[in-house]
Amino acid sequence: MNKTLIVYYSLFQNTKNLALEIAKQTGGDVRELIPEKSYSFDYNTAAKEVRNQIARGFCPKLITGNEAIDDYQTIFIGTPNWFKTLAPPVMSFIKLHDFTGKRIIPFCTHGGGGFCQIENDIARECSNSIILPGIAVNGAAAPEEITKWLETIGF
C-alpha cells in the first residue's frame, strides 16, 4: 500500500494553503495539526511564545493530527519556518510516530529564511526513513511551482 498523507501546522494559513495544493496534486489525505493551546494571533506575542518553546524543546499536546500513520507509506510534513526550525506542534507529531521505512517529504513556508535547519531536524528525528528533497516557499507558491517540484522528486 502506498497511501500518501500530507500533515501540516499553520498559524497564518500559508502552510495550510501549500498543504492543500500538495494534496490536490497528489491525491493524498490531509491532516492538520492543532495543539491543545493555541498560539496568540498577535505576531509579537506568538513569536515570544514560540521562541520560548523551541528553546526548551517543548512539544505541545496535539488535539488533532496525532492519529496513527501506519497505513501511509509517503508522508509530506509541512511547517512554517519558526526561528530556523520546525513549529513545535510539528515536532510533537514527529516524536509521536515511528517513520521507519516511510518516505518523508518536508515542506515549509517562510518569510525569507528558506529551510534553515528544518530538513536536518526532520532527518535527525526520522533517521530510519527515506527523506526526499522538500520545497521551501516564501509566502505562497504557484500551482505550477508545486507541480514542477513534485515531478523533480518523481512523484
Automatic annotation (TrEMBL):
Pfam families attached to this UniProt entry: Flavodoxin_4
SUPFAM superfamilies per the UniProt record, alphabetical: Flavoproteins
Highest rank taxon of the organism: Bacteria
Coiled coil: none
InterPro entries registered for this protein in UniProt: Flavodoxin/NO_synth, Flavoprotein-like_sf
Location of the Flavodoxin-like domain: 3-153
Protein name: Flavodoxin
Organism, scientific name: Clostridium omnivorum
Lineage: Bacteria, Bacillati, Bacillota, Clostridia, Eubacteriales
